[in-house]
Design goal:
single chain, globular, 271 residues, 6-stranded mixed sheet, alpha+beta, Metallo-beta-lactamase, Chain A
Length: 271
């Protein structure tokens, strides 16, 4: 059975024996995403793996990036957080091949997977099955799961404690269940946030920004931005890892969030 994958967002759909691909991708039909310029197109893991591979690279001690080359769909990379009590895969990518499975197992495998928002659900069920790992998603985004599975744990509320003081924090914004991960051991013990694109690391890497839709340039409201900032304010962190390679606020990240919100709010209120 082929599990079809949307080429524009990278989301894997439920397997349908003998059936054609779905007529459309609801995630891409939503105004936060878009249907590819050539129309709705589908692929499979087998086809994807013919001309692509995953790059596995250390970001800092106990943090490893995993991203597909050449880039596929949205182009994000996942982050593997190593702890003595087990490893967490933060966010997900679509391609999973034998080389990647071997590399992840060499790093200690996965205890669980946690994902910031629906654009990065990708082939999370395939990853879950390969490592026998539960998937933590915020319940507010349940409707965007296109491949349901018993391994999915829908958590509720403002935060979810995992292990080794890893904590999922609901920020909302880009999606109602938009989540960031607080990793207290990161940044040499000063703490790090892994943010997907809830807190988008800007190109100059001294600021972050906030959007309802990145490809369609729809900003967030002032209230939504204030909620994101309030959600992360209690947590100590000096570094932010965004969704793509090198999108990192290396030092002073907490101050960067505060000045970024101030700049953003001033800009949207100026007109």
């Amino acid at each position: 059975m082929e599990a079809y994958i949307c080429e524009t967002c990278g989301t894997q759909y439920a397997q349908r024996a003998g059936e054609q691909p779905p007529a459309n991708c609801p995630i891409c039909d939503d105004e936060r995403q878009y249907v590819g310029w050539k129309g709705q197109r589908w692929t499979t893991l087998e086809a994807l793996g013919r001309d692509r591979h995953n790059r596995v690279q250390s970001e800092e001690p106990n943090l490893t990036g995993i991203g597909t080359e050449p880039a596929f769909a949205i182009g994000q990379r996942a982050l593997l957080v190593q702890t003595p009590a087990g490893n967490l895969l933060w966010d997900c990518i679509t391609l999973l091949d034998s080389a990647t499975i071997g590399a992840v197992r060499a790093l200690g495998g996965l205890r669980a997977i946690a994902i910031s928002h629906p654009h990065y659900y990708s082939s999370m069920v395939t990853w879950s099955q390969a490592f026998d790992a539960p998937i933590y998603l915020h319940a507010a985004d349940r409707q965007w799961v296109m491949r349901p599975d018993p391994a999915i744990v829908f958590w509720e509320g403002e935060d979810q404690r995992l292990w080794s003081d890893l904590t999922l924090i609901q920020c909302g914004g880009h999606f109602p269940g938009g989540t960031v991960l607080h990793w207290p051991a990161g940044a040499e013990g000063l703490g790090a946030l892994l943010t997907g694109d809830t807190l988008m690391v800007a190109s100059d890497r001294r600021y972050v920004s906030f959007m309802y839709s990145f490809p369609n340039y729809i900003p967030l409201s002032a209230a939504a931005v204030k909620r994101i900032v309030a959600a992360v304010e209690p947590w100590p962190f000096d570094r932010i890892y965004g969704a793509w390679w090198d999108r990192v606020v290396a030092v002073g990240a907490k101050a960067a969030v505060a000045r970024s919100a101030e700049r953003y709010l001033a800009a949207i209120q100026a007109h």
